[in-house]
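ok, trying the design again with the full structure, not the truncated one.
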């Protein structure tokens, strides 16, 4: 576990993120492989990364493709063809952000800064600007749960951002570089994509085959240009949640991606391959859930401490955000939570976050307003469920709703460790 510092609070299953070897530095690193500096932290000061880049002839590229595979945890990928490929390419391990949730991690990659800089600090979190919880993945409210309810209400969600994205910087400072954002057709212009997608850069696709087919079209159309392309693949994340990271379905998803990725690499003419760097990375991994580790809060239990909260709890997968009415109410809630969770989770306030170095900067009022006054951080295999109307026996198509078999957001090595490889396309 050399990538991390000491385990959290004396545990042996939760770890501090590493913000030096971190996923938010991937795109600035990719651009420096093209000789372009966007004044964002990169990985060039990390000796193991620089050795990797040099050994794989990744520097001096004219064109770069960054493949971002959601939920490709370094420890999840074991037993797949991707694991073999990553080993063959001498993959480097990077740390995800905290929380290890898509809503915070994907903007971190696309903005080239950590969540505490871009402002999207979790999945369902409180925004004091509007006095409400917002589901940043669906862009909906706590009660208005239909997709894009927030922007449809007339709210400019980009006003909630604290930083500008990499594509915006390139457009201003390096307009000669063609920027292409490859995304599944359901993402551009909706949900989380409203924060970071530049509509003029979109390359839309459906599935692995179409993604790499569209990438080849972009390469052919802009043969004489410098090109910076990202391709985002959410499919493996869905498989991991639904079936678990050790399932045949997860392995089949990884193997299917590897097959199409390999075919994409084989399609490069020699002259094109020599001037192209390929990068593969992920936003986080996932931790298998165990039913005996479930933390269940009934509505009756929550009534006991309802008066301490100004809004219902938010959540980022295996992390729960609590927003308190006052410091005294925070202390009361913290003691109540410690009794309820026993050894299945840790309860952190801002002071604890700073001591454990979970953030790249000291916590501040601006950060804790969004992240929460208290955080429940689930330990290995655990998750918090707030009991609502039981739907376990209601029809879910032809089958009952089984729920997630794996999740993320917390700080196990499963969730934190992500692979990074960069190589000249002629070298694979």
């Amino acid at each position: 576990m050399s990538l991390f510092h000491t385990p959290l609070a004396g545990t042996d299953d939760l770890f501090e993120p590493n913000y030096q070897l971190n996923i938010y530095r991937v795109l600035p690193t990719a651009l420096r492989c093209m000789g372009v500096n966007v004044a964002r932290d990169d990985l060039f000061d990390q000796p193991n990364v620089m050795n990797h880049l040099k050994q794989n002839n990744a520097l001096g590229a004219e064109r770069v493709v960054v493949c971002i595979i959601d939920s490709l945890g370094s420890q999840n990928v074991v037993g797949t063809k991707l694991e073999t490929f990553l080993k063959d390419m001498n993959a480097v391990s990077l740390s995800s952000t905290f929380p290890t949730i898509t809503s915070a991690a994907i903007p971190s990659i696309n903005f080239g800064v950590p969540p505490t800089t871009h402002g999207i600090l979790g999945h369902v979190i409180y925004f004091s600007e509007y006095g409400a919880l917002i589901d940043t993945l669906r862009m909906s409210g706590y009660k208005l749960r239909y997709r894009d309810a927030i922007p449809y209400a007339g709210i400019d969600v980009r006003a909630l951002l604290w930083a500008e994205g990499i594509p915006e910087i390139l457009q201003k400072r390096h307009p000669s570089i063609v920027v292409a954002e490859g995304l599944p057709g359901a993402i551009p212009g909706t949900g989380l994509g409203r924060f970071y997608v530049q509509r003029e850069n979109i390359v839309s696709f459906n599935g692995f085959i179409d993604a790499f087919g569209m990438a080849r079209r972009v390469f052919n159309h802009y043969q004489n240009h410098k090109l910076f392309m990202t391709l985002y693949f959410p499919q493996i994340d869905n498989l991991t949640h639904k079936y678990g990271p050790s399932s045949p379905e997860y392995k089949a998803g990884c193997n299917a991606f590897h097959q199409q990725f390999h075919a994409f690499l084989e399609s490069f003419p020699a002259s094109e391959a020599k001037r192209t760097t390929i990068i593969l990375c992920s936003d986080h991994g996932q931790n298998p859930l165990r039913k005996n580790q479930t933390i269940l809060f009934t509505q009756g239990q929550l009534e006991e401490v309802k008066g301490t909260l100004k809004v219902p709890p938010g959540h980022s997968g295996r992390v729960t955000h609590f927003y308190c009415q006052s410091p005294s109410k925070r202390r009361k809630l913290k003691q109540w939570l410690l009794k309820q969770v026993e050894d299945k989770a840790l309860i952190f306030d801002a002071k604890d976050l700073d001591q454990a170095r979970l953030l790249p900067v000291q916590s501040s009022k601006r950060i804790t307003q969004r992240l929460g006054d208290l955080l429940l951080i689930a330990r290995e295999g655990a998750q918090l469920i707030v009991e609502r109307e039981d739907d376990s026996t209601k029809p879910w198509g032809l089958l009952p709703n089984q729920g997630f078999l794996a999740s993320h957001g917390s700080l196990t090595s499963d969730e934190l460790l992500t692979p990074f490889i960069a190589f000249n396309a002629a070298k694979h």
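Keeping the full-length input from now on. Residues 34 and 267 are 22 Å apart (CA to CA).
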